[in-house]
Design brief:
- The structure is a homodimer of 238-residue chains.
- Chain A is α+β, with helices and mostly antiparallel strands.
- In chain A, β8 and β9 form a beta hairpin.
- The first copy, chain A, binds a DNA duplex (30 and 30 nucleotides) through α7.
Chain lengths: 238, 238
DNA sequence: AATCAAAACTGATAAAAGTCATCTTTTTCG
DNA sequence: CGAAAAAGATGACTTTTATCAGTTTTGATT
């Protein structure tokens, strides 16, 4: 499981359009580009650990990474799943804090590392970029507030349904016709997203399947009836 | 319940030292000061509503304000309780978004309103201030991640104990000897903080009281045995 | 002080979800 | 390929917590 380096110019990156780096002026772009290190990771490898200090920013070029916290009993809660174009570990970096979560590769990933100094330099010189970062962070916060309320007052069934819909939206292929969740999650990982026990997820998934709301395609899940699923999630009434 | 204006120079504000405005240069400080409007609110009044657009930033000068989301069935989840020195509503403002929560006065409050334009002007002109705001936002996010994991995997009893300790730390008087939670919360509000039913909070509180962990003083709660409470919260083992 | 409303409390019950044990299927890897 | 491990699935059982219905207490108002 050795780390393999690769290289791609940021300007040629397929995911630049989805990234916060999009629209950066050439000077700043090359500052990022010239200082980055790009590494290929295999499934199961860790990107960073809870309790350690960030030394830079990770920028996803391929694959999927889960960011999660472990509680005392070793139970995992997945805070989010990073996809290409996403930044990783910026929260701890920007608040000059330890990592409060661990990041582990879910699907073989290509990730670029930008040293703290380079990132901060661009951030300080470029108020427009700073503004966009702030906006993204605050957006993220809004989503987390939503999740908090959901976790506090929705049943596991509702949360599972809601998360399946979210996963379909976020990791489905582009275009409206996308119904397949392009992410092979284990039942255990799904449980860690929803905040419940693995057995409960298994039972509910097979109920959803029996009711024709979803099907399993290999390790992936296809949403057959998004509307009924939304009803299960209590997102639409009646 | 008419709104009553008052005025206090920012430089003379008792809570400047706890605020993100602390350390602002005189020019920026007076820009904020000259454009602010300060209003006294009574318990129960609303500061802003979920679904509306922010037009500026609120800065707490006195009292307490709860920021919460209502779910479909009308159940409330309190995201945080703002105290003097805190900013209110900056998340939606910075992400150019609607308010995703409602703010209601818990204890008669004095709140200053800074128009969007003035705030953004200072933010843009002053990268150090911007940096501090970003740091605060990211810190807040770290706390919310913690809350998410707590909500996902801890029992109601553990969460209540943890929240009582948090309330003691945050709203107790300064100094180590502070054991009284300086905030008269109804059982219903406490339930909305913990994410449970009012009856459950009532039952657990009286258990905690019987076990000598807390006492009631009027409408307030005093933490008698923080160590045992931390044990109940599963924060320390054995 | 009497009245009313809201908040606090109590008990009974039911539903939801976790845990544990076991079994089957799939995947991994020498 | 075949053994071992991991993931998935199922059943029985228990615990936790929500819900409902009702009572008591407190506080506000006239």
């Amino acid at each position: 499981m050795a780390k393999v380096e690769f290289n791609i110019a940021c300007t040629l990156c397929d995911h630049l359009k989805d990234s916060l780096f999009n629209g950066l002026n050439p000077e700043d772009m090359s500052r990022i580009n010239n200082h980055k290190t790009c590494i290929q990771y295999k499934k199961g490898q860790n990107i960073f650990y809870e309790g350690t200090r960030p030394t830079g920013l990770y920028c996803m070029n391929g694959g999927k990474v889960k960011v999660y916290k472990n509680n005392v009993q070793g139970k995992e809660f997945i805070i989010y799943i990073a996809k290409p174009g996403d930044f990783l570990g910026y929260r701890a970096l920007l608040s000059e804090d330890f990592y409060k979560a661990t990041a582990t590769v879910l699907e073989d990933a290509k990730i670029c590392f930008i040293p703290k100094e380079s990132f901060f330099e661009v951030l300080q010189k470029n108020p427009v970029f700073m503004r966009r970062v702030v906006q993204a962070v605050c957006n993220e916060m809004g989503i987390m507030e939503e999740k908090l309320a959901e976790l506090a007052h929705k049943s596991v069934r509702e949360r599972l349904a809601a998360n399946l819909l979210m996963l379909k939206e976020t990791y489905g292929m582009e275009g409206e016709g996308s119904t397949l969740i392009e992410l092979a999650l284990s039942r255990e990982d799904l449980a860690s997203i929803v905040g419940t026990a693995t057995e409960t997820v298994i039972r509910l998934l097979s109920e959803f399947k029996n009711d024709g709301l979803i099907t399993f395609e290999g390790k992936k899940i296809r949403v057959l009836d998004a509307r009924k699923l939304a009803k299960q999630a209590d997102l639409i009434i009646a």
